Amino acid sequence: MVRPKLPEAGTVPGTARKKAVAAGPRTPRAKRMKAEPSELDRLQGVIVSSLDDDKAENIVTLDLADKAAFCDRMVIATGQADRQITAMAQHLEEKLHAAGLKRVQIEGANGSDWVLIDAGDIIIHLFKPEARTTYALERMWGEDLNEAG
Q: Three-state SS for 76?
């Protein structure tokens, strides 16, 4: 039985792009460029104002700057119906673009119980009441997190 020849140690077959992907990121995520606190405050103000205008309920903001690597702030709000949550997401996207944020990603806006909006250093969660209770993100990321550590 003839065994296939393995590549030499340290060599990765493929294109330069594939080699770069295999090597992983050059800088750790923790060292990514972060928005200045004043810019975060401004964008958070746009978000909370938009949600308030759309009659969102129980709007909560959490500062995650020293707790999470994926964002610095989290905003959680409740909507009563699919149409309301979809409208809140669309209005947020429009207002964030108008505020100068180029890339806003929305997941779950097609009639689900939970819509996630990734606005870079701020993550927005829009829930129906039952889903918000089930996932309990305020408990997961709130003040209790400091006591557990």
A: strand
